[in-house]
Specification:
five-stranded antiparallel beta sheet, alpha+beta, four-stranded antiparallel beta sheet, 131 residues
Length: 131
């Protein structure tokens, strides 16, 4: 008899605490790393130096819907997000479908000065988002 009283409680406890599936979407970011050598820099009209990197990963969809973040490092251990003043140069970047351009301008701003004289490791992160 007592078992019959506990049976509805057991059924209700299973029903109330029933499993609900929760689907979480993990954003699949993509990271690309490359190195810019001293000889890669080209003098521009601004005056500054620039490097245009071929980036087939930046498709039309990435260009329109994703975020693109760029980081630079001299040692490959400590990365700094650009825009940034780093090693006497002001770094900035622009991107379009298929390419990313990094620009370096001497902080004095009066002339282009010399191109950055050390290799720079660049980390490019494509961050997916919904429009």
């Amino acid at each position: 008899m007592k078992a019959l009283l506990f049976l509805p409680l057991l059924v209700m406890s299973v029903w109330i605490t029933g499993c609900t599936k929760k689907y979480e979407y993990v954003t699949p970011n993509q990271t690309i790393q490359t190195t810019i050598q001293k000889a890669d820099w080209q003098l521009t009209d601004v005056p500054s130096y620039a490097v245009t990197l071929s980036m087939p990963e930046i498709t039309d969809q990435v260009n329109q819907d994703f975020g693109v973040s760029v980081y630079i490092s001299a040692d490959g251990e400590t990365f700094e997000a650009i825009p940034e003043v780093y090693g006497g140069y002001s770094y900035s970047y622009t991107y379009t479908t298929g390419s990313l351009t990094i620009e370096a301008q001497d902080v004095s701003g009066s002339s282009a000065g010399a191109a950055p004289d050390k290799p720079i490791i660049v980390k490019i992160v494509l961050v997916e988002s919904e429009p």
